[in-house]
TrEMBL record:
Transmembrane segments: none annotated. Pfam families: NYN. The lineage of its organism: Bacteria, Pseudomonadati, Pseudomonadota, Alphaproteobacteria, Rhodobacterales. This is NYN domain-containing protein. Residues 7-164 form the NYN domain. PANTHER family: SLR0755 PROTEIN. GO terms for molecular function: RNA nuclease activity. InterPro entries: LabA, NYN. Signal peptide: none annotated. It comes from Celeribacter ethanolicus.
Amino acid sequence: MFYKDERLALFIDGSNLYAAAKSLGFDIDYKLLRQEFMRRGKLLRAFYYTALLENDDYSPIRPLVDWLNYNGFTMVTKPAKEFTDSMGRRKIKGNMDIELAVNAMELAPHVDHIVIFSGDGDFRPLVESLQRQGVRVSVVSTIKTQPPMIADELRRQADNFIELNDLKDVIGRPPREPRDDDSYEN
């Protein structure tokens, strides 16, 4: 699936990858993830996309964002929007699809292979466009959950589907015990 001389870029949909790994019962070790893909080709960029709650004194995602920023990842963040749904529940929305798509299109002329860590079917037209530009596209998500976390149309469009559960022994670590203030899952 990978060629040693291939120029690679990783595009990580943070909340989507977090949810997929959590559903499979493990956490991602991002240092190991980066090393794994450096081994598979010439890793030019590793982007990580997440929305951040700005009004919280402590965001559980903040230490990860800071660590990634200092350890070779290009962080793309924006403020999350907080709202109350019709049932009165506090909800957080922070969709990073457009940012990921724009960055992938900009980088396409400079890479041979793009790896998207997301199962979001909204990325199917992006994958198709990247392929028309001569870029191979792999998608990392899972079909091992009920329901599967990858949209069927995205899996069919990609050149390669990489089952996240198959990477568990390479890039995974046991989940940490959640603290009482870990209510935000992005």
